[in-house]
């Protein structure tokens, strides 16, 4: 037995496959988040066995491919080539912090400081990976614990970065303890492992009563449209609208304040020009009449075409020299009984699928004009954190991918969002783990911001999530349904809402300081290492 363990513990090939398998199985829908701790132990062991930073990256890469395949295989169901490319590319990018971890492992620093710098390397990568055009935060280490909200309540202080810190620092100290045969380091790892969940439980037990004095009756619609058929599988855009209206009418009451339809629910073209496409004007008029009849606000997803006056258009727009410039947006529309149409344009767009990454840079360096970047750019990118007014409160409409970016959502909470509304269409990848993960990750947003979550998904999962991350309503996937719920309106501000990404920003500064120390003062980092 000891010989077998010794062989496995010293085989980089076996370790990388074990790490990939453990990491993949630690994410929803698998109820095995604890596996992420031994997974990172395997990664730290590969780092220690490697002969260079590049060698470490080479050996962890297969494991990261396995991880990405198990957790995000569903990307290939929307587009096979694009899904494969995304998995391989993201796995490659994830090797970058491992190369830094190798440098610190060879630095000669104390094991405590080594573990902390290796933790900072990973979390700094996750943080930066949230803030560029190829952003993909789906596999942030923290997301593995999305379905165990009772043990991660402290993220109302740290943001979900605190979970990543807990995982990496615990595993880092554990590996250093094994490497140095140190009881003190092992004790430190044990304390780190238990302290964060205990803090979370203490926060649950001592949490004050909710300060909600107002509730909104909300109707959530799940139309179950077929994303791969025109008009969602209906005969026309008008028939699709009728389907949505019937579901809404079935539950609407005189007390209803908000009705929520999912992303891309409106199958007609909608624009700021009444005559656009022949359907924009009639659709807007129909829904404007309906919200007056209801006396409630309607939030719905739609592709929205914004036409710009001459001289006021952004740099890259659609439309030829003889056409008025315009951009299409993945948008949320707010129809209200007593206000003009309000529009929120999605800010966080899925790379390649929704928008070409770095399109403005690519257009600038294409001095010969070989590519028509204007017409292949995809959706326009929204830059304003617009919310929708609901009587005395307001709520955003986070569109699909928006909901996995806490730093963006913080803008809405700081502007006094009473609860968070998510509209999404997870039907592109069918009945896979993708929609389960997306729903689970919303539980973290509820805890981070102390807000109720209202979620409308085209095919599911729609639901209601309480501020402690507990699920109050959860629909079945692939079912046409609607439900009504009294949603409390909250005004509290968590420490994370107030101070934002202080933890990853601080760790990034700490990492830079450690790297500069090794490079400039100690001379421990060399190009050939």
Question: What topology emerges from the helices and strands here?
Answer:
Layout: H1 2-9, H2 12-25, H3 36-49, H4 53-72, H5 75-78, H6 80-93, H7 95-105, H8 111-129, H9 155-158, H10 161-180, H11 183-206, E1 214-222, H12 237-249, E2 256-260, E3 270-271, H13 280-294, E4 297-307, E5 326-336, E6 339-345, H14 359-365, H15 373-376, E7 388-390, E8 393-395, E9 397-399, H16 406-414, E10 420-424, H17 433-449, E11 453-457, E12 463-465, E13 471-474, E14 481-489, H18 495-499, H19 502-522
Distance between the termini: 35 Å
Largest sheet: 7 strands, mixed
Low-confidence stretches: 524-529
Strand content: 15-25%
Pathway: Protein modification; lipoprotein biosynthesis (N-acyl transfer)
Pfam families: CN_hydrolase, LNT_N
Family: Belongs to the CN hydrolase family. Apolipoprotein N-acyltransferase subfamily.
InterPro entries: Apolipo_AcylTrfase, C-N_Hydrolase, C-N_Hydrolase_sf, LNT_N
Structural features, described:
Keywords: Acyltransferase, Cell membrane, Lipoprotein, Membrane, Transferase, Transmembrane, Transmembrane helix. With 529 residues, the protein is an alpha/beta fold. It folds into 2 domains: 3-207 and 501-522; 215-348 and 382-491, Carbon-nitrogen hydrolase (Nitrilase/N-carbamoyl-D-aminoacid amidohydrolase, 4-Layer Sandwich), CATH 3.60.110.10. Helices cover 46% and strands 15% of the residues. It contains 19 helices and 14 strands. It has helices spanning 2-9, 12-25, 36-49, 53-72, 75-78, 80-93, 95-105, 111-129, 155-158, 161-180, 183-206, 237-249, 280-294, 359-365, 373-376, 406-414, 433-449, 495-499, 502-522; strands at residues 214-222, 256-260, 270-271, 297-307, 326-336, 339-345, 388-390, 393-395, 397-399, 420-424, 453-457, 463-465, 471-474, 481-489. Strands 1, 2, 3, 4, 5, 6 and 14 form a 7-stranded mixed β-sheet that branches. A 5-stranded mixed β-sheet has the order 9-10-11-12-13, with helices on one face. Strand 9 (397-399), helix 16 and strand 10 form a beta-alpha-beta unit. It is globular. Mean pLDDT is 92; it is low at 524-529.
């Amino acid at each position: 037995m000891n010989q077998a363990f010794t062989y496995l513990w010293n085989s980089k090939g076996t370790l990388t496959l074990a790490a990939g398998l453990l990491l993949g199985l630690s994410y929803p829908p698998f109820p095995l988040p604890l596996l992420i701790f031994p997974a990172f132990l395997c990664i730290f062991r590969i780092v220690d066995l490697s002969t260079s930073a590049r060698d470490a990256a080479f050996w962890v890469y297969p494991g990261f491919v396995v991880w990405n395949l198990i957790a995000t295989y569903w990307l290939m169901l929307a587009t096979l080539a694009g899904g494969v490319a995304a998995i391989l590319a993201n796995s490659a990018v994830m090797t970058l912090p491992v190369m830094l971890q190798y440098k610190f492992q060879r630095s000669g620093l104390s094991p405590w400081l080594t573990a902390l710098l290796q933790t900072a390397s990973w979390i700094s990568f996750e943080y930066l990976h949230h803030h560029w055009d190829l952003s993909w935060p789906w596999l942030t280490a923290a997301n593995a614990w999305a379905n165990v909200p009772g043990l991660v309540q402290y993220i109302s202080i740290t943001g979900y970065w605190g979970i990543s810190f807990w995982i990496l620092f615990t595993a880092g100290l554990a590996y250093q303890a094994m490497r140095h045969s140190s009881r003190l380091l092992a004790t430190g790892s044990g304390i780190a492992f238990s302290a964060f969940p205990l803090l979370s439980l203490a926060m649950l037990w001592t949490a004050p009563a909710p300060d909600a004095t107002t509730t909104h009756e909300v109707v959530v619609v799940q139309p179950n449209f077929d994303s791969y058929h025109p008009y969602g599988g209906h005969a026309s855009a008008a028939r699709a609208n009728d389907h949505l209206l019937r579901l809404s009418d079935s539950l609407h009451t005189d007390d209803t304040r908000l009705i929520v339809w999912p992303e891309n629910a409106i199958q007609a073209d909608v624009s700021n020009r009444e005559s656009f496409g022949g359907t924009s004007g009639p659709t807007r008029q129909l829904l404007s009449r309906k919200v007056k009849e209801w006396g409630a606000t309607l939030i719905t997803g739609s592709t929205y075409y914004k036409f710009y006056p001459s001289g006021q258009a952004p740099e890259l727009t659609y439309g030829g020299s003889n056409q008025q410039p315009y951009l299409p947006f993945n948008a949320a529309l707010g129809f209200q009984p007593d206000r003009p149409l309000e529009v929120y344009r999605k800010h966080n767009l899925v790379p390649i699928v929704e928008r070409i990454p770095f399109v403005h840079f690519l257009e600038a360096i294409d001095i010969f004009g070989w590519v028509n970047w204007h017409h292949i750019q995809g959706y326009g990118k929204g830059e304003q954190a617009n919310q929708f007014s609901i009587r005395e409160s307001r709520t955003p409409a986070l569109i699909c991918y928006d909901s996995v970016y806490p730093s963006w959502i913080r803008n809405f909470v700081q502007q006094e969002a009473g609860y968070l509304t998510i509209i999404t269409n997870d039907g592109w990848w069918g009945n896979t783990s993708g929609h389960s993960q997306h729903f689970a990750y919303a539980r973290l947003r509820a805890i981070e911001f102390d807000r109720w979550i209202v979620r409308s998904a085209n095919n599911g999962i729609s639901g209601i999530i309480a501020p402690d991350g507990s699920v109050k309503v959860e629909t079945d996937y692939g079912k046409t349904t609607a439900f009504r719920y009294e949603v409390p309106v909250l005004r509290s501000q968590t420490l994370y809402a107030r101070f934002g990404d202080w933890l990853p920003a601080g760790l990034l500064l700490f990492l830079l300081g450690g790297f500069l120390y090794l490079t400039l003062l100690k001379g421990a980092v060399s190009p050939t290492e």
